[in-house]
Amino acid sequence: MILDAINQGFVTLVVFLWDTLIPIFRKIRLFILLPFTPILKPFTKHLFSCIDIRLDSDVKSRPDICILDERFYARFWADQEIAFEEMYVEGWWTTENMTALYEKILPFLSRYPWIVKLSIAHWEGVFRWGVLNTGREGHNFSAPPEYDLPVEYFKLITDKEHMQHSSGYYAHGATSYAEAQVAKLKLIAAKLDLKAGMTLLDLGCGFGGLSKFMADNYGVTVVGVTVCGSMAKQSANHCVGSNVTIKAKDWRRVEGKFDRITVIEMLEHVGKHNYDEFFRKIESLLKPGGRILLQHYFVNPGVPNFVEFFCKYQFGQVYFPDMHEFVKPCCRHLRVANTQDITLDAEITYQHYIGMLDDNRDKMEGIAGPKVWRACRITYASAGAMLTTRDLLVYHTILVRKDDQSRVPLAQ
C-alpha cells in the first residue's frame, strides 16, 4: 500500500512537471529553428513534393497545403507530427481537402514508420502517454474539455436517436450512419445471444445509446458505467423510462455479477499497464456461462500505439495495442471465443463522421468555436486514413470464462 501510494505520487508529480516543461522545450526548439526558415522552407516544400503534396502561401494557386504563417516551417521541424496537427488547429495552415491530404500522407508513413520516430516530440509523447501509467486508479482517463460540451454538439456527429459515436456495421446494406448504428446494435445483441431477464453491464456507456437499445428491445436489465460525469448525466436523461441504471465511476469500482458485458471502444482508455487488472476485473463480474463483447482497436506491429494529438485534444488517454499486447493479458483470465474484423465498417463510419463534420461546421463552431471543430476534423481525417491503410484495425471479440468450453457461434 505504501509503495503504491509512493508510486502514484511520483507519477502524478512527473506528469505535472512533464506537462509544464514540454511546451517550454518545444517553444525553445521553435525559436532556435526560426532563423533557419529561408533554408527550411524550400527543403520542406521539396520533401512534401516527393509524395505529391504542394505547399504554397498563395491560396489562389490552390495548393494541397496553404501556408498561412511562415513560422510553419520552423515549427514543423521542431516537433513534426504533433506540430503539424496543432498548427492546423491554430490556423497556421489550411487545406481544401483534408481527406485527400491524409490519403497521401498516411500511406507514406505506413511504408516508412521509422520516420515518425526521428522526432524528439515523438519520444516526449511516448514517455508521457506510453511509459507513465496515467490510467492508474484515481487518474483513469481525464476527459478533455470537449467531452463536457453540450449534448447538442454531439448530436451533430452521432445518429441522434441512439447517440452512438462508435464504428457502425454496413455488411447488410446500411447506407447511412444511423442505419449502420442500428445494424451494429443488433449484431452485438445477436453475438451476446441476449434474452429477456438477463443482466447487462455496459462499460464505457457514453451517452447510453446501447444501454437503452438493449433494455427496450431485448428486455434486459442494464447498468451503464462511464467515468465522465457530464456523459453520465446525459446518459441518464437519454435512458429515462428504460430499465437502465447509469453510474459515474471508475471501472475498478464496479460491483455485481452480470450475464453479459459490453466494452465498446473503451479499452483504448484503460492503458496497457492496466490490461491485466482490467481483464481480471471483468472476469470477476461475469457470471458462469456469460459472455463479454469488446469492440476495440488494434495497430499492426511497428505502428505507433498512440497519437499524441488524439490524447491531448480529442479523447484523453488513448493507447492502441497490437494483437500481442491485447491477447497475452486477456488470455490469462478469459478465453477468446471468436473474433470478427470490422475495419472496413469502421473506415466507412469515419467517412460519415467527416461528412457530418463538414455539413455541420457552422453549427459546431457556433457551439464550441473553430479550434474545437478543426481539432475534430483533423483527428477524423488522420484516423480514417489509418483505417484505410489498415495500420489501425477494429475488431469484435467475444470473451468467455476460461472454464466455459461451449461453442459461441459467430453471428454476422
Question: Which terms would index this structure?
Answer:
3-stranded mixed sheet, 10 strands, 412 residues, alpha/beta, 16 helices, 15% strand
Describe the overall structure.
The protein is α/β, with parallel strands linked by helices and 412 residues long. The protein has two domains: 2-131, no CATH class; 145-401, Rossmann fold. Helices cover 49% and strands 15% of the residues. The chain contains 16 helices and ten strands. The strands form two sheets. The protein has a seven-stranded mixed sheet, with helices on both faces. Strands 1-2-3 form a three-stranded mixed sheet. Strand 5 (221-226), helix 10 and strand 6 (244-248) form a beta-alpha-beta unit. Helix 1 packs antiparallel against helix 3, helix 3 crosses helix 4 (81-89) and helix 14 runs antiparallel to helix 16 (370-388). The model has no long low-confidence stretch (mean pLDDT 90). GO terms for molecular function: methyltransferase activity. Belongs to the CFA/CMAS family.
Write the layout of secondary structure elements.
Blueprint: H1 2-33, H2 37-49, E1 55-56, E2 65-67, H3 72-79, H4 81-89, E3 93-94, H5 98-111, H6 120-131, H7 151-155, H8 177-192, E4 199-203, H9 209-218, E5 221-226, H10 229-238, E6 244-248, E7 258-264, H11 275-285, E8 286-299, H12 308-315, H13 323-333, E9 334-341, H14 343-359, H15 361-368, H16 370-388, E10 392-401
Parallel strand pairs: 1-2, 4-5, 4-7, 5-6, 7-8
Antiparallel strand pairs: 2-3, 8-10, 9-10
Organism: Folsomia candida (Springtail)
Protein name: Cyclopropane-fatty-acyl-phospholipid synthase
GO biological process, one term: lipid biosynthetic process
